[in-house]
Write a structure and sequence with these properties.
There is one protein chain. This protein is an alpha/beta fold. It has a single domain, classed as Glycosidases (TIM Barrel). The chain is 32% helix and 19% strand. It has eleven helices and 13 strands. It has an eight-stranded parallel beta barrel with strand order 1-2-3-4-5-6-7-13, surrounded by four helices. Helix 4 packs across helix 5 and helix 10 packs parallel to helix 11. It is globular and about 55 Å long.
Length: 392
């Protein structure tokens, strides 16, 4: 189904609540809550069993990123939220209501990895862009959402004119909506700062750098790479060519630097609540090995409960992130090197964001950090660390 069919299916159920959502939207943050940095937590339908809506930590999350709706090549949208056409919208609306009840913002994630054909089709003509934006206008009115997250991945040079035209139209038609976009991390081996981001920054409230999945094996297509961390905070200066990535490299050299020149207050870093499982190497800067699994399977909850953190944890003093190391295979995925983030590395990343005067952080995904077996009030240790680090 497409989103333009939504009013016929859901208007009756929404009629009583739409006005209250609008009123709640007008009063968000009116309780005096004034976060120093935005904490945008992605909350996706296919992970709904990991974290019930009722247990979302809105003491930490300032903007709930509810995903996902997928753009279709004709300018319409799906609304199954990776669940189905009935339960998906119900789940999404319950998440919007929970965010508003807590005095926080609710943003709909659009697209994501694998949806590039839909994006390109929906933005390729003025007529399709008009339809796409009309769909979002209707959704905002019906559900009372506060904005949209344009997950156009990958955004290539040929896409930029149509992407810009779509963002301009969306900003013009919904001037009060929050508009955000996640963007790729920066590899100084072959990239230079892109002036495109200076041009489009006025259209967005946040440009968030996905500073995770920043490592790969030479044997898996990452030519010349040694083993490295999923989301190192720092690298050597200049960055090591065989492991060039880090949060600092992407933020400082890729997006703050001219000619990209994104205002720091509009820039966010990325934080992964999952890690990488390497086999065949026991730590960073080693030849060989491969990443066997990552996002989802290697959630922080799984790492904390299924891997020997207490006995095998190491700390990289340059990258300023932890990792697990063992010659013998560890855990259910038989890892030799597990790269992940914990409370110590999150503290460093929060300090970095504050020192650079950044606008905030995105988390992929808050469900992966939820440890359901812990006592109530202790089930989200990473979110607790984020609150202490980013909004102390």
């Amino acid at each position: 189904m497409i989103i333009r069919n939504l009013p016929r299916i859901a208007t009756l159920a929404l009629a009583a609540s739409a006005s209250s959502f609008a009123a709640a939207g007008d009063s968000l943050f009116a309780d005096g809550f004034d976060p120093r940095l935005w904490v945008q937590g992605y909350y996706v339908g296919y992970e709904r069993a990991l974290l019930p809506v009722s247990e979302i930590d809105f003491g930490t999350v300032t903007h709930l990123m509810i995903g996902r709706m997928r753009p279709l090549p004709d300018g319409n949208l799906t609304y199954d939220f990776d669940i189905d056409d009935v339960q998906g919208p119900q789940w999404a609306q319950s998440a919007v209501a929970a965010a508003h009840a807590a005095g926080r913002k609710a943003i709909i994630m659009l697209g994501g990895a694998g949806e590039i054909d839909g994006w390109r089709g929906a933005a390729e003509t003025a007529q399709k862009r008009e339809l796409f934006v009309l769909n979002l206008q209707e959704l905002k009115e019906a559900w009372g959402v506060d904005g949209f997250d344009l997950d156009w991945e990958p955004l290539e040079d040929a896409d930029k004119p149509n992407f810009t035209a779509l963002a301009q139209l969306l900003r013009a038609r919904l001037p009060g909506a929050i508009l955000t976009i996640p963007v790729g991390w920066f590899n100084p081996n072959y990239m230079t700062p892109d002036p495109f981001w200076a041009d489009v920054a006025p259209l967005f409230d946040r440009i968030n750098v996905m500073t995770y999945d920043m490592a790969g094996a030479d044997s898996q297509g990452w030519t010349g790479w040694k083993s490295w961390h999923n989301a190192a905070l720092y690298n050597t200066d200049p960055p090591t060519g065989s492991t060039p990535s880090a949060v600092d490299v992407s933020i400082r050299l890729g997006y703050l630097a001219a000619p990209a020149s994104v205002p720091p207050s509009k820039l966010g870093m990325g934080l992964a609540f999952y890690g990488n499982c390497w086999q065949g190497v026991t730590g960073p800067h080693q030849d060989g090995g491969s990443i066997s699994t990552s996002d989802g399977t290697m959630s922080y909850a799984n790492i904390a409960t299924q891997y020997p953190v207490a006995t095998n944890r190491m700390w990289d003093t340059t990258a300023r992130v932890p990792y697990l190391s063992s010659v013998a295979p560890m855990g259910p995925q038989n890892c030799n090197f597990v790269s992940y983030d914990d409370a110590q590395s999150i503290a460093g990343k929060g300090a970095y964001a504050r020192a650079q005067h950044l606008g905030g952080v995105i988390i992929w995904t808050i469900g992966q950090g939820h440890i359901a077996t812990l006592p109530t009030g202790q089930r989200d240790p990473l979110l607790g660390a984020v609150r202490a680090a980013f909004n102390p």
